């Protein structure tokens, strides 16, 4: 077993899957028999006419709320990749067009995949996307990310060169997080940036996180509700902050720009940061602390009333 208190020197070879030390906690995911160690599906699903209609209905619903709320690079990415041309997009076409723009591709996976496999794909500019789409019964809420969340929510942002580089560097950062056994901290960074991040545009917060852009309620709640905090991003603070995975967020973190995000993360000394982190989170997901640059201090009314489980209004 490796001594995780003093991790070995980082490898710069991202060609092979990283090894996971037995001391590192990872989610116990059972690999389906039909996929290999890379967890890639042999081919993209052949979607039915009803599947395509579900995509179109989801697309139309989001586009009824996103203009004026989502950042400009997201809308530009939608247009560049023609995601609204009808039906679930072809991964082959997306990969060809993304490849020409930023060198990324989209690859099909059957479900959530292990952290180390996810890191490896990102480090090699491959975005793993769920190879299935929700049903009418799960139209409003699905626990596991499907092709709509992954492609509509994430892929447009990969047309932005700076954000595309950030995603690759995040994947590479996974190697170091595993050596220090700090995957929870790195996961918090992903959650509060890639999934639920806001950015300033023309003096106002706008959406760039996929978890917000792919859901109609959160797209409005994140920007306009009184309940949640909106706080400028501080990487050290975010990586010490717990998060909620099955409800609207009590706190959103805001970046100035993708260049700001890249500077705060890729240029940060994570060896020193990881040595200072404890194994568990320091701050609750609703906390406001003295070092925060607060844009809006939330009432937390939605969460105090019980959140989604109580049918509280997202105000």
Give an overview in words.
This protein is 39% helix and 10% strand. The chain has 315 residues and is α/β, with parallel strands linked by helices.
Please identify the structural class as seen in this structure: alpha/beta
Label the overall shape. Answer: globular
Q: Biggest β-sheet, characterized? A: 5 strands, mixed
Number of strands: 7
Mean pLDDT: 94
In DSSP terms (H or I, runs of 4 or more residues), the helix count works out at 13
Order of helices and strands: HHHEHEHHHEEHHEHEHHEH
Helix content: 25-40%
**Uncertain residue segments:** 1-10
Question: What is the topology, as strand order, of the major beta sheet?
Answer: 4-3-6-5-7
Beta-strand residue fraction: 5-15%
Distance between the termini: 49 Å
Radius of gyration from CA coordinates: 19 Å
What's this model, at a glance?
With 315 residues, this protein is α/β, with parallel strands linked by helices. The chain contains 13 helices and 7 strands. The chain has helices at 49-63, 72-81, 91-101, 115-123, 147-154, 161-180, 183-195, 210-213, 216-224, 235-238, 258-266, 270-276, 301-304; strands spanning 105-109, 126-130, 198-201, 204-207, 229-232, 251-255, 294-296.
